[in-house]
Amino acid sequence: MKYILSLSLTGLVLFFVSCGKHNDQDVTVSNQQFSAGSFIQAGDTLNSKSGSNGRAIKGTLQSGKTYYLSSLYADATINAGDTLVVQNGVSVLVVGPASGAGAIGTQDHAPGIVVNGTFLCLGTKDKPNWFTVADASLKSDPAKDPQNPSTDPAFKGYWGGIQGGVGSGDIIIKWTHLEYTGGLAPLNGPKPGTNRYGVFIQSPSANFVVEDSWLYGCANDVVRPAGGKYEIFRNTFEKIGLIAGECVNVKSGSTGDIGYNLVVGGTGNAFKAANAGGLSPQASMICYNNTVITTGYRQAKAGEGGSIDFEQAGRGLAYNNILVNCAYGLGIRGGGGSVPIADTANIRYGYTYNYGDGTDFTTQFLPVGFITVQQASDINGGNATTPGANNPRFVNYPLPAAPGTNFSAADYVGSFNFRLASGSPAIGKGYTAFSVAAVVKKDAVFGVTEVTPPGKDLGAYQSDGSGNQH
To answer: Is 177:130 a contact under the CB 8 Å cutoff?
Structure first.
């Protein structure tokens, strides 16, 4: 298979010819806009053509154009060997009836994009991409926050997200808003009638990148690597999971980095590594410099969900994370109860900044029943921490929380600013003498844009302006 790459800069055109496995189409970079094959016509319905029920798609969604997924049709599919490129500034809107037959989000009316080939979603900071619902009346209204999660449309699962197949190529997502995922799987497919994951990859040979993106509203895990090399950097996770679901749930066959992410109001853990699935290599996550706020309160299973979790032979590192008013602190599972033990010989952690407004939080900094050990480098490391001690001092977020706060509904970013204010005790407390995985190559199209190294400050936002850019 041959690719023709061209880059036009100030009148100079450079041509490169190389071999690869990404697709069987010509691909072009013109004025720094990458494309593959032909442009798909603006306004097209990606999961139907001439009334067909479901559709194979390949080519390029053109910068600045709008496309649709209809609840009246089945999934759109990228076939093996094909590539779908989403240039910057693209909107993909889910449309269909709000009620009645074919209503968005009902059984067999929550279409997704099934990736058996390669999916490259290349939004930019100035021109991000959007995958969301067209009908404003179906969306969650930020003016109503905090609102009851059971009636909040953020958790409705209107569409089926991005679903990688067992032999898919790479899935690369940059500067993209992914909203209202977790729709019901079709009855004629795998796991019929269950809520799908927001973005799912299960191909051990693939590269998986989610960076600088906004993941808003999902009825299940919103990102699940279950095979492949991954890099998950500088994203914002908001309103993830109604009664179950992690923000990132790493399974066997997956290894990589999770860094500089902001999580507000996750149902289960923000980040979890569990070696379920029987694939090689062993599930591993290097989890560092994240800011996690009020997670773990809607989880239906008692004793599960909270912040960061290693279990069932999961392994890795956890450093420089800020955990605020979470149901449970950093969890290393010791095999008690029904959850198998983590790979404790290959887990290192520390420099954790815990904050809790009451004893309900502070007595779970070292979760009961887990084997997490307080580290000398932790701030508020033990269960005897005084409630309200060592406020991390965000630029704009109310700590201590108001009396009577319902933390199940404290799940939104709104106008809050989680950067560190001058004088924050989290500034300058980071640990930088560890290595990250960096398993995906650095590449503007086919890889990770930046593997941000460990930070000198704790949390997702660095005082020098690096880290999370939202």
So the answer is: yes
State the DSSP code for 451.
Answer: -
Which pLDDT does position 24 carry in this prediction?
Answer: 41
CB atoms within 10 A of CB 393: 15
Residue among 276, 400, 406 nearest 338 (CA):
276
What pLDDT is recorded for position 339? 85
DSSP result, 214-256: EEEEESS-SEEESSEEEEEES-EEEEE-SSS--SEEE-TTEEE
Are the beta carbons of 313 and 282 closer than 8 angstroms? Answer: yes
C-alpha distances in Å from residue 230, one per residue of 175, 190, 207, 331, 436: 16, 23, 6, 22, 12
pLDDT digits 0-9 by tens, 50-69: 999 999 999 999 999 999 99
CB distance 173 to 213 below 8 Å: yes
Pick from 27, 37, 36: nearest CA to 6: 27
Tokens representing 128 are 């991000």
- Token readout for 263 is 């999580």
> CB of 104 within 8 A of CB of 133?
yes
pTM assigned to the model: 0.93
Distances in Å between the Cα of 152 and the Cα atoms of 129, 135, 286, 425 are 24, 15, 33, 35
- Token pair 């990148």: residue: 209
DSSP state of 128: -
Which residues of the chain have a pLDDT value below 70?
Answer: 1-32
Q: What whole-number distance in Å separates Cα of residue 401 and Cα of residue 163? A: 38
Give Cβ neighbours of residue 211 (< 8 Å, ≥ 6 apart): 173, 174, 175, 231, 232, 233, 234, 235, 448, 449, 450
Give the separation between CA 296 and CA 304, rounded to whole angstroms: 8
Report the pLDDT value the prediction gives residue 31, as an integer from 0 to 100: 54
